[in-house]
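Quick illustration, no need to memorize.
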Amino acid sequence: MSNRGSFYVLRAVIGRILAILMAISLFAGTLLGIAGKTVFDEKFVKDTLEDSDIYKEITEVVKEQALNAYEDTEFYRKDVAKDLEDILDAAVDEDVLKGETEDFIEQVYSGKKVQFRAKHFIKDFSKKANAFMEKNGIDSEKVNVEELMNSAVDAFYDNVETDEVSDAINESVTHVVISFAEVFLLFFAISAGCLLLILIFSSRRLKDLSFACIFAAILSALAGLAIMILLGDVKVLELPLSSLESIVISLRDRSAAFMFTEALTMAVIGVVLIIIRRVIAGRKSDY
């Protein structure tokens, strides 16, 4: 084989290697794109939580645990047990938990220090409780609202967040955001670099580029199928709250849809490049 022929073969091999590397980088970027469209999307997180029953479910747990904790205090009166349940139902509602959670999410996405202070909870509890007692003629001397509030606040923190966990989340979120940006830029640089090198060194530029796109499309489609299969039956995950099932399903459907969309996009680009290559080859054969 002549030196020119060997050089042509070498360029072809290098071009195919670059195409494979480019496809893997595009696929990896697509995987990162899932995070950008789900857990890094503030609106998606808020909408997903709101569409589930998680606020209602956790609120019921908080009320139950608050009542149990209050029963262990010296202020508990068995003869007003039903009144206590009614007070908790009136004073502790899911809108309070929703307000706290949305404040928490906004802190996460704004880069502020992540903390739960239960400000909505503490602000509204006594007012709602006292208004309910006055309206229904409940003897305030038999019910220590302050102690009941303390029990409810403790239950709220036990089921929502603590300062220690908040600090850990704050550090983790900051680290993840920085890492996400760095890795995304890395894959973007690798893809752009491979594209540039293919255009410069490859002897079959369009063929390699179409191969890269179609290969990335296949990987994305397989990933989408894997997501649907692995999370197809959410019940097998044995999640602690039933409302978490709808959250996982929403995450699964959004992720799979994103992967399939990217797969279709890459496949179309790959096919278009093949068509362009054949058109150019056909025109050259006419001369």
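The longest helix spans residues 243-285.
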